[in-house]
């Protein structure tokens, strides 16, 4: 039996990180941002049934990019954790911070202990009673957790998407304008010029004013109408300038 | 830092594809949280019914385009009024609601678990259960309570929902062993149900609108309170009125306290003029 080659721990970690980054970069990005009525989640997703965005609890949403079966596992875990906790104590006792923490710990453990890291990057967003109380966390494949302000992009070229989004982001923008900013950033992901139609987008909001469960998906005619409205108002703004 | 979260990992059950039923999942990870979970022996012989108060009368009726659920506010323990402003109606999801009659402590737990059950399924599966599915799920949960029912803790829920396929409101009743019965037009459960049902029977029309339907429900609860000491009538002095939930294609809505107060006051005033209430036509 041959002895395995010695690989320095630094190198091992670096190889794993490169592997995960490459895997994540193969898929499309997702963005999460504040708008005047709450938090908007948008993902570039062709499938209508395999969701990248979903509801975790009353005020908490989830967005993910990367390998579907891996982030789906994390989603199930989050929903189960939140429901058990909410049932055991009270619905108000489930927070985005807790969920972000268990995700970070889970991903951190997988990253350091398994041979193959998980190729996922996720966002946990919680809408508060006021915009100042909104929370957006980004959790990366190695279990790092970042408390983001206002907006965040995840995915292979998230830095590029993020810088695109920064130019157009306004925390008090109406929904159609926020959606327009998000789709614009996603469409120019790799420096390319694409048109994103309603059929390519998965969109949901955490609506501050909504009762009970704040999460709502936007699709079909309503989504097409919002995209049109966003385009018109941006075109109008540019004409004004 | 979190229970069940050791060594940086949630227990495997949290991550497995597993079940989309919250009850089954809870049985696996935290069975002690389930209602009716016993650690000790079956307990001393004799009645244990005095341990929790009884929730009383609930009525449900359908009207074109929706369904209505209403309940009085009283809970009794023997001859004592245990609670006069209890809420026995539970919004279980956007298109369904459940009300409980019988042992209050058990019923509240059951309704709460049922609520999480429906929501849990919806979140995991990405779509909600059909109304039939919801009704069957509740039947299983009531059946699960059979052991407690044998000891005297009987819970009888009443499920109402708006069926998104057939676009109409439906009512389901249950017995203590989990038998599920679909009711036509209207139904009532609880100690005052006999009187309430009789009252609705005489006032019900197939073309009721929402406000008239609320009116019928309030009249029937008044009649139940009139003849059943365990049912509470509208309390004008303390401003405690029955609760009314309406489910239509727009979803679930609790009728505002002011609106119910106004209608209930009208009912009481009507009874001041004629204590037996509105008369049904004879021809």
From TrEMBL, chain A:
Gene Ontology annotations for the cellular component aspect, listed alphabetically: cytoplasm; proteasome core complex, alpha-subunit complex
Keyword Cell cycle: no
Pfam families (alphabetical): Proteasome
Protein's UniProt keywords contain 4Fe-4S: no
InterPro entries: Ntn_hydrolases_N, Proteasome_alpha, Proteasome_alpha-type, Proteasome_asu_bac, Proteasome_sua/b
Protein activity control: The formation of the proteasomal ATPase ARC-20S proteasome complex, likely via the docking of the C-termini of ARC into the intersubunit pockets in the alpha-rings, may trigger opening of the gate for substrate entry. Interconversion between the open-gate and close-gate conformations leads to a dynamic regulation of the 20S proteasome proteolysis activity.
Pathway stated in the Swiss-Prot or TrEMBL entry: Protein degradation; proteasomal Pup-dependent pathway
Annotated localization: Cytoplasm
Keywords: Cytoplasm, Hydrolase, Proteasome
Origin: domain of life: Bacteria
GO annotation terms (biological process): modification-dependent protein catabolic process; proteasomal protein catabolic process
Gene Ontology molecular-function annotations: threonine-type endopeptidase activity
Known partners and oligomeric status: The 20S proteasome core is composed of 14 alpha and 14 beta subunits that assemble into four stacked heptameric rings, resulting in a barrel-shaped structure. The two inner rings, each composed of seven catalytic beta subunits, are sandwiched by two outer rings, each composed of seven alpha subunits. The catalytic chamber with the active sites is on the inside of the barrel. Has a gated structure, the ends of the cylinder being occluded by the N-termini of the alpha-subunits. Is capped by the proteasome-associated ATPase, ARC.
Function, as annotated: Component of the proteasome core, a large protease complex with broad specificity involved in protein degradation.
HAMAP family found in the cross-reference section: Proteasome_A_B (MF_00289_B)
Record-stated family: Belongs to the peptidase T1A family.
Protein name, per record: Proteasome subunit alpha
Gene this protein is translated from: prcA
TrEMBL record, chain B:
Residues forming the catalytic site: 56 (nucleophile)
InterPro entries associated with the record: Ntn_hydrolases_N, Proteasome_sua/b, Proteasome_suB-type, PSB_actinobac
Entry's Gene Ontology cellular component terms: cytoplasm; proteasome core complex, beta-subunit complex
Localization annotation: Cytoplasm
BP-aspect Gene Ontology terms: modification-dependent protein catabolic process; proteasomal protein catabolic process
Example GO molecular function: threonine-type endopeptidase activity
Cell inner membrane keyword on record: no
Activity regulation comment: The formation of the proteasomal ATPase ARC-20S proteasome complex, likely via the docking of the C-termini of ARC into the intersubunit pockets in the alpha-rings, may trigger opening of the gate for substrate entry. Interconversion between the open-gate and close-gate conformations leads to a dynamic regulation of the 20S proteasome proteolysis activity.
Pathway listed: Protein degradation; proteasomal Pup-dependent pathway
Keyword flag Hydrolase: yes
Record keywords: Autocatalytic cleavage, Cytoplasm, Hydrolase, Protease, Proteasome, Threonine protease, Zymogen
Residue ranges the record assigns to the propeptide: 1-55
Pfam entry (one): Proteasome
The organism's place on the tree of life at top rank: Bacteria
Function: Component of the proteasome core, a large protease complex with broad specificity involved in protein degradation.
Subunit structure: The 20S proteasome core is composed of 14 alpha and 14 beta subunits that assemble into four stacked heptameric rings, resulting in a barrel-shaped structure. The two inner rings, each composed of seven catalytic beta subunits, are sandwiched by two outer rings, each composed of seven alpha subunits. The catalytic chamber with the active sites is on the inside of the barrel. Has a gated structure, the ends of the cylinder being occluded by the N-termini of the alpha-subunits. Is capped by the proteasome-associated ATPase, ARC.
Similarity annotation: Belongs to the peptidase T1B family.
Protein name: Proteasome subunit beta
Organism expressing this protein natively: Nocardiopsis eucommiae
Gene name linked to the record: prcB
